[in-house]
Design a protein that fits this description.
alpha/beta; about 425 residues; 13 strands; 6-stranded parallel beta sheet; 18 helices
Length: about 425
């Protein structure tokens, strides 16, 4: 059961415990090397070993996608389409623009182009996540990435989750493969007979997937650990809302964690009672109970102290349940995604707000941002200099080049004026 603590000392002890130390004992690396060496043959063996199913052809066919549409409710399809619309609307506003400008004979600029391909890992196992498909596939689609690939573990029947297939189709995914685990990351990075390599790999996964993403040379979005939520609340905040938001986070995984920072012990005790009541009726009880042990409720002296703690903790999800949440927003320095007010549950960000739910965890929000269009773009700069422009800055280049002892740099500029000076 979740505990109540005075002060934040225990919080930071838990903070150390929650960090996944991505140190491989050689097991994941051996899988990667095996797939790199043996390709599809290795994928088939690992899929049989870990997923318990024999797969001969990893590529999902159009017939399988059509069948997936028939297998799920129209209501779910419409929900996925609504979510996709909002995600696209938000991420289109992120898109940067190429530019150029002219100054004293120098025309300079920046070109922005999409990467050539993107690979998306979509977890299976305890639950399927069609929402992750939308979050990870729509930004590269907006950028114009020409090849978007999804890999996801097959079920015991050899088929991928129907909702994941439908979400992939809605998001405009080009290829879907029935393979998961570290072996899927290896396939995306090195390529096999069936799966061509990609330029970048994104998407959440278990610790083996996270380790594989760290070990391969193909770039990824950011290191990923267990999911987490931190809630800042005052005495008048709704304890039932808080309890269910903490449980919503906890039901993801036994390694997930939920934290409440509050100035009110009375509120803390009410939240505990609400959690106890919900545990009697909610499914996934074993997961919830294990996860709740990793979090906690912390009584602190003020909202300002809570903000300071949160900025140090850098939570993946941060809910601010205070009377004037926007007055707090400008004080937040480190968070993956922020949810303001009592009617902004983290579940909205998971599905339909439009903001991305692929977020930095384990304190990485101190220097990483949520998945965005920027993850699928590359930039190069260009310049065109007229003869008069070069002449205007000739002395500047000469002075700087000589100061660095790079005399060929100086001469490369001066040589262009030798004929004029004869």
């Amino acid at each position: 059961m979740i505990e109540i603590y005075e002060g934040s000392k225990v919080l930071f002890e838990k903070n150390k415990q929650r960090k996944i130390l991505l140190e491989d004992d050689g097991y994941v690396k051996s899988i990667l090397l095996d797939v790199e060496k043996r390709g599809d043959e290795a994928l088939k063996e690992y899929t049989l070993k870990f997923d318990g199913v024999k797969i001969n052809d990893f590529l999902v066919t159009q017939d399988e996608i059509a069948e997936a549409y028939d297998n799920i409710d129209t209501e779910l399809i419409e929900a996925l389409e609504t979510s996709a619309e909002n995600i696209e609307d938000f991420h289109r506003r992120e898109t940067p623009q190429s530019f150029l400008f002219e100054k004293k004979g120098i025309t300079a600029g920046q070109m922005i182009l999409p990467i050539e391909s993107a690979g998306i890992y979509v977890p299976g196992g305890r639950a399927a996540y069609p929402s992750t498909v939308l979050m990870a596939a729509i930004p590269p689609k907006i950028c114009g990435v020409p090849r978007i690939v999804v890999v996801t573990p097959p079920g015991k029947d050899g088929r991928c989750n129907d909702a994941v297939l439908v979400a992939s189709d809605i998001a405009g995914v080009d290829e879907i493969y029935k393979v998961g685990g570290a072996q899927a990351i290896a396939a995306l990075s090195y390529g096999t007979e069936s799966i061509k390599p990609v330029s970048k790999i994104v998407g959440p996964g278990n610790r083996f997937v996270a380790m594989a993403k760290k070990l391969v040379e193909t770039p990824t979005e950011f290191p990923a650990g267990p999911s987490e939520v931190m809630i800042i609340a005052e005495e008048k905040s709704n304890p039932r809302f808080i309890a269910l938001d903490m449980l919503a986070q906890s039901e993801h995984d036994p390694m997930a964690s939920a934290y409440l920072l509050t100035t009110s012990r009375a509120l803390a005790e009410k939240v505990v009672r609400e959690i106890e009541n919900e545990l009697k009726i909610l499914p996934r009880k074993e997961i919830l109970e294990e996860s709740l042990k990793r979090g906690g409720i912390f009584i602190i002296s003020s909202i300002d102290e809570a903000i300071e703690i949160s900025n140090s903790f850098a939570p993946e999800h941060l809910e601010i349940m205070v009377n004037e949440p926007f007055s707090v927003l400008t004080k937040i320095k480190n968070a993956g995604s922020v949810f303001l007010g009592e009617y902004s549950p983290e579940a909205m960000g998971d599905y339909v707000s439009g903001t991305n739910h692929v977020l930095p965890t384990s304190g990485f929000a101190r220097f990483y941002s949520s998945l965005s269009v920027d993850d699928f773009l590359k930039k190069y700069t260009f310049q065109y200099v007229t003869k008069n422009g070069l002449k205007a800055y000739r002395g500047t280049v000469s002075t700087l080049a000589k100061s660095e002892g790079l005399f060929a740099h100086e001469k490369a500029v001066n040589v262009r004026f030798e004929e004029d000076e004869k």
